[in-house]
Each structure stands twice: as structure tokens, then as C-alpha cells.
Amino acid sequence: xxxxxxxxxxxxxxxxxxxxxxxxxxxxxxxxxxxxxxxxxxxxxxxxxxxxxxxxxxxxxxxxxxxxxxxxxxxxxxxxxxxxxxxxxxxxxxxxxxxxxxxxxxxxxxxxxxxxxxxxxxxxxxxxxxxxxxxxxxxxxxxxxxxxxxxxxxxxxxxxxxxxxxxxxxxxxxxxxxxxxxxxxxxxxxxxxxxxxxxxxxxxxxxxxxxxxxxxxxxxxxxxxxxxxxxxxxxxxxxxxxxxxxxxxxxxxxxxxxxxxxxxxxxxxxxxxxxxxxxxxxxxxxxxxxxxxxxxxxxxxxxxxxxxxxxxxxxxxxxxxxxxxxxxxxxxxxxxxxxxxxxxxxxxxxxxxxxxxxxxxxxxxxxxxxxxxxxxxxxxxxxxxxxxxxxxxxxxxxx
Length: 399
Ligand code: GLC
Description:
Number of domains: 1
CATH class: Mainly Alpha
CATH topology: Glycosyltransferase
Bound molecules: alpha-D-glucopyranose
Strand order of the largest sheet: 7-8-11-12
Helix content: 40-55%
Number of strands: 16
Number of helices: 13
CATH architecture: Alpha/alpha barrel
Structural class: alpha+beta
Shape: globular
Strand content: 5-15%
């Protein structure tokens, strides 16, 4: 299989145009709308060979921004096809997703400089990151809270079992019902973080906050390039504050852990979230060495024959085969976590280990096609077919 060719073909096939908006759906049969972080990854891939399509992807994503700055995690461009994602408020969901937009915008510009594009989206970008910092951290603790597992992008990760009161062997349907109930409760309390939402589900998630730190730095680059001194100061200040707060409250035993509740109880479930801070350079060189050698490369926990498990094999919640009904973040490999780990490894100079992730990612696509996720032990594909962000392998060639 010529992966390059197949990946580009898939991006083309999953491209949609609605009115003046152009975007790429994650998968025709399962996900016929626009998703926030998916679109950012699609833009990062497109930036390599079709910058105008990459820019269009972000423009359409930002076109449904809420008045308070929130960017919704799904835009239902064509209402009424699927009723599974009934989390909507007038054509969009009421949740957000890991904030990869500034990183994607800077990446597009880095490859194809376009000041006018950056100027045109800068106000929306700034207001999105301001929303996260002001509305999702109402007590100024410098950690951003997510209000639903879906905001992490890892919908059924066992990191969230305790705060959701879910059992390890909960079914896909029951799990979805818990998350939908959260949306209903938050809708009733008008999405007020300070007084209401925090009572239901309020998690300081490691990948979300690590991704935010790296994106605030990207926003800082954009603001500096555009000579918006205030924006540059805001972005860099908060990148530093969040990185420090993560260290203070989410770090224990040489690893980062997500936390829940007012007293920051660490959610001690071993997942690939340990590796996400590599992407933002949050471990020291020595700590990174320990994380990579002792955890990432341990076959008994994360290092599987076909790549990096999203949950340690030693966790009671670990399920290689996912759900019969669909995808799973309870162990299977996702191309997205591979990409973030790949970027993190390169940041610390682990070229051989990064190349190994790339080789394994390509092998998975060759064996099972562009599936949503993969069994780490057998490489078998799971969940949606024709899943667009598999094309992230095109952005794994920098070692
Ligand atoms: C699944 C994934 C989520 C992704 C969405 C659309 O819900 O868990 O991360 O954004 O599919 O692809």
C-alpha cells in the first residue's frame, strides 16, 4: 500500500463543503460532522501539501465560536443524520475538546507564511484561549477543568471511571448514557463552572492541560509575529502558570496524573497521559529518561507489539479488543496518541524511539487500513473505517 497516496486520497474523500465552509469529517459512516481536534490534525496534515484547505479547515471550525469564546467540539453541519451525538445547542455541541487550534494555525503558517490569514483568525484564537483560562479556571488555580470525558477527546478512558462512578466492565451504551446525562445536568445549570458544573464532573486532565500549554506558546508566537504585545504576554504568562501548576498539583512519583475534585485527588490510573507532557516539554531531561525507559518501553505496561497502549496492560480496566459496539480508549492504540508521543520523543532527542513509533504506525495502516483504533497485541483494526487522522503518519517523518 502506498500510504502517502492513500492518506491524501482519504483526506480528499472525507472533505465536505457546506455553503461557504469547507472541512474534513473524521469518517463517513460514523462521524459525518466536523470535530474540533480532528480538524486541527487534518489542518496539520494538509499544511504539508494544501495550505488553502488547511486554512479553510480552521476557518470553518472557528465560524461557530460561541459569544463567550468557546469553540464547540462538534459542528453538526448537516442536521438530522445521526442522533447519537445529541449534545447540541443550535447546530453544535456544548462541549469543547483539547485546544489544538493555535498549534495548527502556527504550523500552517510555519510551512506557508500567510500573515493575512493569521490576522484574520487572531481575535477568535485569543478569545478561545481566554475563555478556557477565565471560564474553566474560575478560582485562578491555573489548571483548566473539563466538564465531560468527551472534552478530553478520550471519551471512555478509565482515567475518568472514578469521577464518573463507572465500573471497569461498563458497556459502551451505559458509558455513553453517563456522559449524556452530564450534558443534560450542565445544560440545566447553564454551563456555569464556578457554582454548578464543578459539582458533576470537574477533572484537571493531563493531556488537555499539556496540550493547552503548548498551544499557548503557539499563540504567543502568533501574537509576537503579529506584534500584539498584550496577547503575547497573556499567552506566555499563562503557559508558564499552567506548567507550574501541573508540576505542583499533578506530579507524583516521577509521572503526571490527572486529578479530580477540590482537593486535587490524583486519578491513579496508568494511561498514556503520562507521555502527553513530553509533547509540551514538561518533564526535565532526567525525568523524561525515566518515563521513556521505565514506562513507555516496558512491554508489561505500555510497549505493545503494535505500538503504545493507551492504558497500561496492568490496569484492571485494560481491554485490548475494545468494545464490540465501537471504539475504545481503554487500551487500543490511536494514531493521535502515537503522533503526540512521536512529537514528544523528538523534542527530547529520542530519534530511534520516535522512528520506531512511525514504523509501527505505518505497519498498522498497512495491516488494517485507516481504522479508528487498533488492538495493540494483534494490530487488528477497530471502530470506524476510513478514519481521517490516520493520515497523521504523513507528519511523522522528522527524525
Ligand atoms: C471519537 C474520539 C474523539 C474524536 C471523535 C471524532 O469520539 O474519541 O477523540 O474526536 O471520535 O473522530
